Amino acid sequence: MSAGYGTLNSDLERTLLNRFQEHGLLEIGKLAVRVQSGIAYINGCVGSLKQKQLATNLASQIDGIVDVVNMLRVTPVSLLDDEVLEEHIRNALNRNPKLNESRITVKVVNGHVYLEGVVTTATEKSIAESEVWAAPGIRGMTNSIKVVCECHKNEHQVIEDIRRTLGDYLGIDTSTIGIDVRHGIVHIYGSVPDEYFVHATEELAMWTPGVKGVINRLQVQDHSGLAQAEHPISSSPEHCLQIDTAQPSLL
Length: 251
Prior knowledge:
The structure is a single chain. It is built from eight helices and 13 strands. By secondary structure, it is α/β, with parallel strands linked by helices. Strands 9, 10, 11, 12 and 13 form a five-stranded mixed beta sheet that branches.
């Protein structure tokens, strides 16, 4: 392997470890990463399947990584006392520069985390949720944070907000996604890498201020880059803003 490839792999490894650090994964257990020919190999232990999935999603969002081999072992950790877990989550939210922690309240009851408060973007709500799922020993979560924008935005501004959120949080190329807004209803079409991004895109769009519903016609690309079957899904605020405590959000 040439020195150039070695430098690129090292840069990707540092970027990946930084992303894990930002989402609190390095506090849970020792994670080791190796990048070779654009493939990220992740080793170590985490406390839940959700945290293992989070590691895969974070790695797949990094430019230059074409595939992820996740060899993390899921080793359930001992449940923390509610007060200790609550403090851990508050500290994680406070450390994240993309969040205004003072506007988010955290309550833990028997290991179940309840988030409330007000933020101004869907990205902030999603980041807060990721921080919670990265915490060790949680049993579940209800995200009741409201996304509120004090200013009225036209349809073009709503589209720009959605695109910005998709780029900031999911890290995907939004040039393959078409977005139209008509009377508060968002129409999404185009192609994304996998099924996770189909549902995550819809959820983030639904959390955007000014959106009343989402019609999702995204398609999943196959390995040749062609789109597979269409996924026509319709969502409303009642559907998207109620998060099932037994089934964590995709984000």
